[in-house]
Amino acid sequence: MINFLSDFYDDVLNENTFIQIIKVEYENPNYIFEYHWHEEMQFYYFAQGEAIICCNFKETIVKAEDFVIIHTNEPHYIKNLSKQLVFYIIKIDFSFIYSHMVDSIQTKFLAPLSQNLILFENVVRNDHNISKCSNRIISEYFTKELGFELAIKSQIYDLMVLLLRGYVKKFYTENELHSKISRLEYFHNVFKHIDSNFTEKINVNQLAKIANMSDEHFCRKFKLITGLSTIDYINTLRVNKAIELLNENELSITEIAMKCGFSDSNYFSRVFKKYQDMSPMQMRNKSKSM
């Protein structure tokens, strides 16, 4: 995971800030922001370029003006397909729209939103009204003219109405949501171990012991959570690291293979081509030609 995303997810909204927006720009095609999740619902608004976003283990190509909804504790990743990818991450504290008086509106709509009990479609496209709301929110946030908080708040209300009317997939019960969160928390130490040691030799038995499961049960649960086998997940991290090294320095292919946890350069090249549809040398040459 690259640092700015990690820092962003760790931010805590202070009492005077109900929204945070970060502009993300990336120029490295084929780079993947690895599988991760966070405790709050977040929105991505794509302004330029194309990418693959995977939510609920389903990949979708997204492009400019697409609006993406990332639910609480929903594993997801993004793979850049462009020389210039620009998108905005929008993080909202939904408690700010609560009123001091409990009414039917708060009970019916606001409480489920803040409690993450509403499941929306992940990708919204070709919706002029949602694009208009997104652009207005982003513009008001960065220009911060007088009354920008009111303008943002009104646009968030409009955005929620549009999503509720057109893009609801399911209402969770509290038990369903709790079960989903518990499943992810159970694997927290597993993912932490993989992320810290993916350049070393890792086997299923090691990971199953961390999760206190049999190997077979662990593999089933891991695939259920990530949509990937353990080896595919680990190899994705290794290939991403290799892409960074191919683009940033002049290490040989063999040296890069060793640094990324591969036993030899031939195996590394086969795995790399499987995930990137090109050899490591082709990736390096492509990067130099840009």
Q: Could you give the topology of this structure?
A:
Elements: H1 3-10, E1 19-26, E2 32-36, E3 42-48, E4 50-55, E5 58-63, E6 67-70, E7 76-80, E8 85-92, H2 104-114, E9 118-120, E10 123-124, H3 128-143, H4 148-166, E11 168-171, H5 174-186, H6 188-197, H7 204-210, H8 215-226, H9 230-248, H10 253-259, H11 265-276, H12 280-289
Antiparallel strand pairs: 1-8, 2-7, 3-6, 3-8, 4-5, 4-7, 6-10, 9-11
Protein name: AraC-type DNA-binding protein
InterPro entries: AraC-bd, Homeodomain-like_sf, HTH-like, HTH_AraC, HTH_AraC-typ_CS, RmlC-like_jellyroll, Tscrpt_reg_AraC-type_HTH
Keywords: DNA-binding, Transcription, Transcription regulation
**What is the domain total for the residues?**
2
Computed CA radius of gyration, to the nearest angstrom: 21 Å
The beta-strand count equals 11
Strand content: 15-25%
Termini, distance in Å? 24 Å
Main β sheet profile: 5 strands, antiparallel
CATH architecture of the largest domain: Sandwich
What do the pLDDT scores average to?
83
Lateral strand order in the biggest sheet: 1-8-3-6-10
The percentage helix is: 40-55%
Unreliable parts: 1-16
CATH fold name of the largest domain: Jelly Rolls
The CATH class name of the largest domain reads: Mainly Beta
SSE class:
alpha+beta
Shape: globular
Number of helices: 12
Order of helices and strands: HEEEEEEEEHEEHHEHHHHHHHH
Domain HTH araC/xylS-type: 188-286
Keywords: DNA-binding, Transcription, Transcription regulation
Organism: Desulfosporosinus hippei DSM 8344
Protein name: AraC-type DNA-binding protein
